């Protein structure tokens, strides 16, 4: 999405403590949206806490819209290198060219952002996405932000709709592989379901999200 990196260039929340082995940033199952804020780029994706079965999750409904939910905090990847979450979708796009601006839509995506500070052009991001056609583990530059925002396909058209998938990524190693440098701190996480470029509709769900030592 356009200028998606710039929205995290504001005051950061306190750094996590060092005692815990798990650090929740999204306890949606407890009905908690503390410290999550919405930023719209083109109309509003509707984000609501809803019950799915016996568990509360974050539901995203996007109708020709693009907005994200953002959480800002400095996180030490030497202490918490892994990001864990689960997600599912009711929707599937027909294959679109996600390397082009007209195809920069995803039924599900999770961002990791490294703030460049006053050198805003140094801001970097990884987008973990549910792709319409890319093979799993393929990576490519974001169509709007270029090489400083790298996309990684974790799920694609071969994965089943209405099924929960659990993800676990070593953020430190992914950053090193994609940017060629060891980055110790990240400064934010975002969730987004967007359909504004393809003028479509998507309904998706995000479960709890947390960092862990292992």
Terminal-residue CA separation: 31 Å
Residue-averaged pLDDT, rounded?
90
The biggest beta sheet reads: 7 strands, mixed
The Cα radius of gyration reads: 16 Å
Sequence of strands across the biggest β-sheet: 2-5-12-7-8-10-9
Separate helix tally? 1
Residue share in helices? under 10%
Unreliable runs, pLDDT <50, ≥5 residues?
5-18
Give the overall silhouette: globular
- Write down the secondary-structure element order: EEEEEEEEEEEHEE
Please indicate the percent range of residues in DSSP E strands (runs of 2 or more): over 45%
Q: How are the SSEs ordered, and which strands pair?
A:
Elements lengths: L21 E5 L9 E7 L3 E7 L2 E9 L2 E11 L5 E8 L16 E9 L9 E7 L8 E4 L3 E10 L9 E6 H9 L5 E10 L6 E12 L2
Parallel strand pairs: 8-10
Antiparallel strand pairs: 1-13, 2-5, 3-4, 4-13, 5-12, 6-11, 6-13, 7-8, 7-12, 9-10
Description:
A hairpin with a 3-residue loop joins β9 (139-142) and β10 (146-155). The model is unreliable at 5-18 (pLDDT under 50). The chain starts with 21 loop residues before the first strand and ends with a strand. The strands form 2 sheets. A 7-stranded mixed beta sheet has the order 2-5-12-7-8-10-9, with helices on one face. 4% of the residues lie in helices and 49% in strands. With 214 residues, the chain is mainly β.
Task: Describe the structure using short key phrases.
13 strands; 214 residues; 6-stranded antiparallel sheet; 7-stranded mixed sheet; mainly beta
């Amino acid at each position: 999405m356009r200028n998606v990196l710039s929205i995290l260039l504001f005051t950061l929340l306190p750094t996590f403590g060092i005692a815990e082995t798990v650090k929740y940033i999204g306890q949606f199952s407890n009905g908690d949206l503390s410290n999550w804020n919405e930023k719209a780029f083109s109309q509003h994706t509707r984000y609501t806490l809803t019950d799915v079965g016996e568990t509360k999750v974050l539901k995203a409904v996007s109708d020709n819209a693009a907005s994200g939910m953002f959480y800002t905090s400095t996180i030490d990847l030497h202490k918490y290198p892994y990001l864990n979450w689960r997600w599912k979708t009711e929707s599937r796009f027909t294959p679109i060219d996600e390397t082009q601006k007209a195809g920069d839509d995803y039924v599900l995506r999770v961002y990791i952002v490294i703030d460049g500070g006053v050198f805003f052009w140094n801001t970097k991001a990884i987008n973990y996405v549910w792709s319409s056609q890319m093979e799993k583990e393929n990576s490519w530059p974001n169509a709007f932000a270029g090489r400083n925002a790298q996309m990684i396909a974790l799920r694609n058209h071969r994965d089943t709709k209405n099924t929960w998938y659990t993800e676990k990524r070593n953020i430190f190693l992914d950053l090193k592989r994609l940017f060629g440098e060891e980055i110790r701190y990240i400064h934010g996480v975002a969730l987004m379901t967007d359909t504004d470029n393809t003028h479509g509709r998507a309904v998706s769900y995000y479960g709890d999200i947390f960092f862990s030592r292992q």
